[in-house]
Amino acid sequence: MIRVAVLILTMCLLASVHTTAHVTRIYPGQAKAIQGAINHARAGDTLVIEKGIYNETDILVNKKLVIIGNNYPIIDGGGKKQLIVVVHDSVYISGLQLQNTGRSSMTDMAAVRLQNVSGAVVHNNRLLNNTYGIYLQNSHYCNISHNRISASAKDELNSGNGIHAWKSTHLMIHNNNVSGHRDGIYFEFVTESRIIKNVSTKNIRYGLHFMFSHRDVYANNLFVDNGSGVAVMYSKFVEMYNNTFRHNWGDAAYAILLKEITDSKIKQNLFVKNTVGIYMEGSSRIEVMQNEFKENGWGIRVQASCDNNVFEHNNFLSNSFDVATNGTMMLNTFNENYWDKYDGYDLDKNKIGDVPYYPVSMYAVVTERIPNAMILYRSFLTDIMTQVEKLMPSVIPDNLRDDRPVMKSWKLR
Amino acid sequence: MEEIQNKFRKIVNLLSYCSLLLFVSCQSSPEKIDYGKEACASCKMTIVDGRFAAEMITAKGRIYKFDDIVCMKQYATANADAAKDAQFWVAGYIAADGAFIDATKGVFLKSNAFASPMNGNYAAFDNEVSAQHLKDSLNLEYLQWNSL
């Protein structure tokens, strides 16, 4: 008897659970179809937006919902307003095509804005031609993944960022593809977050931009052809692993610009064909290890304001200048790197060169002081000066040297 | 005879071009910023936002460009020698064509709503009339260059 009662009770419970999780299908045609469905839905419901074009803006998601697009329905802002504003925790948005937000100088118009929420997921959406793509504002534990975000903001000055996060913590941003925005991914006051396996290309300013964001990791990302590479500024405990920086080329372009960064790690990254691999200013206690610098204008430019940085086990291959600095006092350590310009010998066969390598070339010092002197680079006169400097060192910083240059390049990948 | 005249004309032309160059090099008005290409002299970030850009022109005519008004202020304080007798120009916040304003003559508003590149959050206007609307809607006060 009791058993039967329990059975009936569980069935009732199951039935009630079943009734709370509704699936509502939304079709294009009527005005405010999506907002109407949200207003009618109960927490925990699923809304399936069917294929079509929806000219809806300022869609407010104020309850816990799963919003799924069937075959990428298009939500078009017509260049006027924002598209989706999420103000409730644990909202899931997937499979939508969001396009043409407005542009305003006072409010940052975003395709998806997450505002004071936690546990939101924005997955597998297409974002086209928006001012800001995904905008996280004071949000936590959010997952932004597999979105394709692109804009054609070629010369437009007031464009926004692809993924913009402000005052947030514990974000996971992975496998997104961002292009054509101001900054691909922008972090300001964002801590304990991860940026993994994203591709950020052809953005006007930076592929990735960090400001005042501590204890973050970015790994396995690809940054190609951005206006000025990646900027990491005013942050502590940032870890950068396994990223590829390719062709960030221009007068003010750097693969990584480090400004006032401390206690951070740059490991196993690949820097190819950038104007400057790493530019460092006011930075200390950074481990730069097992990276490959290949075919860059400058491998590393260390400003005199940097100290206690360690450069170890890196490969420097075919860079015009391996290292440049504007100071003579050098408080950083170079150890056991491979330098393809090293022409010392290894008589004791311990695979380490017997004489130190001085990675700052004479002409790197000259151009650091007089940038215009670059026009004479690789001229006959410069060659003579370099030879003279080799015989009688007077210009290059004496204590900037690698005492144990390795004879064979490191196998890094 | 004609050949000599021709030569003479060429020389005169050349001289006039040269003098033109002289004038050009002596300019002391702000230079157009190549947005997205040039870097801020203070924070090294690329200048992209025309609403907050600024330029300092030293007494010798060297131009330093900044991405935020606060960057120029900081740079001028840190490099007092270069900033001595320098001119300070700021981009107008609502000037569509990116026209620069003499900082000592313009008025400023400060609000977090501006979200300038380095969080200086100062916006410049050529006079109080053009700033009136924003001042009222954001409930702000007028500021002067010297009091920033």
Strand order of the largest sheet of chain B: 2-1-3-4
List the total number of helices of chain A.
4
Number of helices of chain B: 4
Give the strand tally of chain A.
38
List the quaternary state of the chains: heterodimer
Largest sheet of chain B: 4 strands, antiparallel
Shape of chain A: elongated
Which percent range fits the helix content of chain B?
Answer: 25-40%
The amount of beta strand of chain B, in percent, is 15-25%
- State the total count of DSSP E strands of chain B: 6
Rg of chain B computed from alpha carbons, rounded to a whole number of angstroms? 20 Å
Low-confidence stretches of chain A: none
Radius of gyration of chain A: 27 Å
N-to-C SSE series of chain B? Answer: HEEHHEEEEH
Largest sheet of chain A: 25 strands, parallel
Largest interface by Cβ-Cβ < 8 Å? A-B, 21 and 16 residues
* Terminus-to-terminus distance of chain B: 67 Å
**Through-space gap between termini of chain A:** 68 Å
Class by alpha and beta content of chain A: mainly beta
β-strand amount of chain A: 35-45%
Short description:
The complex is a heterodimer of chains A (413) and B (148). Chain A has 413 residues and is mainly β.
Structure description:
- The complex is a heterodimer of chains A (413) and B (148).
- In chain A, strand 1, helix 2 and strand 2 form a beta-alpha-beta unit.
- Chain A has four helices and 38 strands.
- Chain A is mainly beta and 413 residues long.
- In chain B, strand 1 and strand 2 form a beta hairpin.
- Chain B contains four helices and six strands, in the order αββααββββα.
- The radius of gyration of chain B is 20 Å and the shape is elongated.
- The relative contact order of chain B is 0.14.
- At the A-B interface, loops of A face loops of B.
